[in-house]
Amino acid sequence: VPHLGPRISQFSREYFFSAALVAMALLSSYYWSGFPFDSLCEADENNSNITNANPFAGDWIIGIKGTDNTTLESVSSSDPAFVYCRQDFFRYYDKERSFP
Length: 100
Prior knowledge:
The chain is α+β, with helices and mostly antiparallel strands. The strands form two sheets. Strands 1-4 form a two-stranded antiparallel sheet. A two-stranded antiparallel ribbon has the order 2-3. The radius of gyration is 25 Å and the shape is elongated. The termini are far apart. The mean pLDDT is 79.
């Protein structure tokens, strides 16, 4: 068995932990940039079939399941509509690119 002494621990402290810290900082900043990970983008002519009019325009009665509480919400045709978009930059298709 070769006698290595403290060389392995010194190498680990100087190189491995430094590289691990840099990798953690890069990946953390990537995930922070995608917060809140809702995968929603405002609809426009490039990313959806929705045209100028909001397809959800109108009056909606919203109720809480299990209770009798309801509320009336109005959506106008000028309100923005949202569509699914992929916010994972490690795995994306060219047509699905979108920045958070």
